[in-house]
Write a structure and sequence with these properties.
homodimer, Alpha/beta knot, about 35% helix
């Protein structure tokens, strides 16, 4: 399976806090290795992710960058294929097989209006429907389609707690480390 | 294809505004017929959805309810199968085939902590991974799996504008009504 990183473009104080937090949790839960947030270095977000890793299993990394351009350049050098999720791009259902073959993928998701340069710096611009919706949903569907549903079964290492699926109600067990 | 409605549980002023808005847009873009928001009657949200329908194609409905219980009762009477998305539920990948056969489905998605009663009022509690993430992602994946990817090709009636997918950049055309 491909190694996937996510780049969150343009994280703004207050306005994007909850949505960026959802993006981070989705990246983690759906099998990405890390998320790199462009914008302000959000201490609350760091705390959320570190608590999440401590309870539910570790391995996922949160990083910050001052410049998406620098990050894209760096990841291109490391051999990553750059995929930008945008409603203006080519349909994911037509592109996903090709992208899945790449060993290392960096997925860019926007928040505020994305600069034109992002479209040209990316190796592929893909749309998850051509309707306006949500970068959280776009990221989830992209990861789900790239991993072909296998991400739904992902095991998390070094978890302290774990859910035992129930038809009704909740069951959470403590794990011995 | 099943007729799908979405019920957004516990929408709160300020805190949930952006995330509920993402839920509404995802419900619309991924082929649900309507979303019913429980909580405060959000005028900004009404405006967002009505503008969206006017530009990108109509048909999607936004409603409000004071009580999820009343809505679930009403939809059960109308023959809807009630599906609650929760990380504590049974894996979606095991349940989706069975659920897909139902003609009418009401999907409940939470925001704040969901009351125990929701688990018992639902016909199925399903998890989209057993990790904490986002109701926006949970809704997108649920609709995507129920519609088997066909929602990605959904046509919207009476749209004023439409995207022509591009490898680089953006192309939006005006449609004659």
């Amino acid at each position: 399976m491909a190694k996937i990183s996510v780049l969150r473009y343009g994280h703004r104080i207050v306005r994007d806090e909850r949505v960026t937090s959802h993006c981070c949790l989705v990246a983690r839960a759906f099998g990405a290795e890390e998320i790199i947030v462009e914008g302000f270095e959000d201490e609350a977000l760091k705390l959320t992710i570190s608590k999440m890793n401590e309870s539910w299993g570790s391995g996922f990394k949160l990083k910050f960058t001052e410049s998406w351009k620098k990050t894209v350049k760096e990841y291109k050098k490391k051999g990553y294929f750059i995929v930008h999720c945008t409603m203006y791009g080519m349909p994911i259902q037509k592109e996903v097989k090709k992208i899945r073959k790449k060993g290392k993928i960096l997925i860019i998701i926007g928040s505020q209006k994305v600069e034109k340069e992002v479209y040209y710096a990316s190796d592929a611009n893909i749309s998850i429907t051509t309707q306006p919706h949500s970068e959280v949903a776009a990221l989830a569907i992209t990861l789900h389609m790239l991993f072909e549903g296998k991400e739904l079964e992902k095991k998390f290492e070094k978890a302290r707690i774990k859910i035992i699926p129930q038809e009704k109600g909740k069951k959470v067990i403590e794990l011995k480390k």
